[in-house]
Design a protein that fits this description.
The chain has 421 residues and is of the alpha+beta class. 22% of the residues lie in helices and 29% in strands. The protein contains seven helices and 25 strands. It has a six-stranded mixed beta sheet with strand order 5-25-19-6-8-7, sandwiched between helices. Strands 9-18-13-16-17-12 form a six-stranded antiparallel beta sheet, with no helix packed on it. Strands 4-23-22-21 form a four-stranded antiparallel beta sheet, covered by helices on one side. The radius of gyration is 25 Å and the shape is globular. The termini are far apart.
Length: 421
């Protein structure tokens, strides 16, 4: 026992934690992640604003005099959440078996990674605007509907697309997917990564037990009380005070007779208001769907902002950002698309989801007597920490294992929910 030290126990537990955490963060590997400048985060209340893909009009003719266009730089925010972790306190006589601490680190890593996966799945379920319910019995047919929705909208997807089946849907479609040449290798690979298929209708297909159930839908919908005229907006600078105002490009507001008939999480649509390709502006077969992210009185806040190609109030440049074919008008019915409360299946373009890692100078804590700090930066941009110390009065040792991150839906038009009914 002479070789057993508090530092050795910490190292073993932390390495066990890290090894398990890195191998279980399935969804984290399937989103876009980075670690922003910590000084900027500190000065901005741990919120950072990112620009998104611009859209440009197509001008025709030799002489373009008088058709000069500006630039609209849309932005969206991501905020760091609260640190997610584990705090262990044990008396000195529990420090005798290092395997006890190794198992604790492994379990802590597993549960924290599962929490991260669950939060990412909930982000898509709660804010992604794509939605469909399908009675397909073929796995390919079920998944390919998601491919059609993403492709029709012509969203940015250079990093690929992913589809996550819940366990029951995987059980339903597994035999069909297993019969395809896209099936992935060995069972143990599937167990560790969750991936069961590659390039199935344009998606890498995964299975996971952490998807969420939908909330119960609202009471049938209501009618609009005014025409909706939304436009793309960038940040602004006050001409006098020079105060910078950022605008979340994703948010639109729909005024209705009764906001009480909707629930946050509902998917809503107006019959005949179709989605269009962001580049070609071709009208698609499917009605445009929106995710309800807030309700204030009789104003329903949705992702994404509905921008109509035929809105006469929009300039040529602003129409380049149009995502629906025609304006939502007063007296139109804002209907509810979701009917199920089952567990979700989710799909997304990797570029559409953003993770940021938080970084704090925890090493400053090591300046205090008895307190030690260990940290490791993961490839995803997340940094994991362990802080440990002892209390001579209580004869207790405490170990805190945690990570700090923030999650954001960069483009709600490139991710959403598929329900098997």
């Amino acid at each position: 026992m002479a070789a057993l030290t508090a530092g050795k126990i910490a190292e073993v537990m932390f390495e066990s934690f890290i090894e398990t955490y890195e191998h279980q963060t399935m969804m984290l590997d399937l989103v876009d992640g980075e670690s922003p400048d910590k000084a900027k985060l500190s000065n901005a209340g741990n919120t950072i604003w990112y620009p998104v893909q611009q859209h440009r009009p197509v001008l025709k003719g030799f002489d373009l005099s008088g058709q000069e266009q500006g630039i609209i730089e849309e932005t969206y925010p991501i905020s760091l959440g609260e640190p997610t972790g584990d705090l262990i306190e044990q008396r000195i006589d529990d420090m005798r078996d290092i395997r006890f601490w190794e198992r604790a680190g492994e379990q802590s890593g597993y549960q924290q990674a599962t929490e991260l996966n669950s939060e990412l799945a909930a982000l898509v379920s709660n804010t992604g605007s794509l939605f469909y319910e399908s009675s397909a019995v073929s796995g390919f047919d079920f998944i390919s509907e998601g491919q059609a929705l993403i492709n029709e909208r012509q969203v940015y997807k250079t990093q690929g697309c992913n589809f996550l089946l819940n366990d029951r849907a995987n059980q339903k479609f597994g035999a069909d997917l297993a019969g395809r040449q896209t099936l992935q290798g060995r069972p143990e690979t599937t167990w560790s990564t969750g991936q069961i298929g590659q390039n199935i209708a344009g998606f890498d297909v995964h299975t996971g037990s952490f998807t969420k159930a939908l909330t119960a839908p609202g009471a049938g919908g209501s009618t609009l009380t005014a025409d909706v005229s939304e436009k793309p907006e960038g940040g602004s600078v006050d001409g006098i005070t020079k105060v910078v105002t950022n605008i979340d490009y994703r948010t639109g507001v729909l005024p209705v007779v009764s906001g009480a008939v909707y629930n946050v999480g509902d998917v809503v649509y107006v019959a005949g208001v179709k989605s269009i390709g962001l580049a070609s502006k071709d009208v698609n077969a499917a009605d445009m769907t929106f995710k309800v992210v807030g309700i204030t009185g009789n104003n329903v806040t949705v992702f994404p902002k509905p921008i109509a190609l035929d809105d006469p109030a929009l300039s040529t440049l602003e129409k380049a950002y149009a995502n629906i074919n025609t304006q939502i008008k007063s007296a139109d019915v804002l209907a509810i698309a979701n009917t199920s409360t089952d567990r979700t299946n989710i799909f997304w373009a990797k570029d559409s989801l953003q993770m940021i890692g938080g970084d704090c100078p925890w090493n400053l804590a090591s300046e205090f007597g008895g307190m030690k700090v260990i940290s490791k930066a993961l490839a995803s941009g997340i940094t994991c920490y362990m802080i440990y110390d002892a209390n001579s009065k209580t004869a207790n040792f405490s170990y805190r294992l945690f990570a700090w991150y923030g999650l954001g839906n960069r483009n709600p038009m490139a991710n959403g929910v598929a329900m098997s009914i």
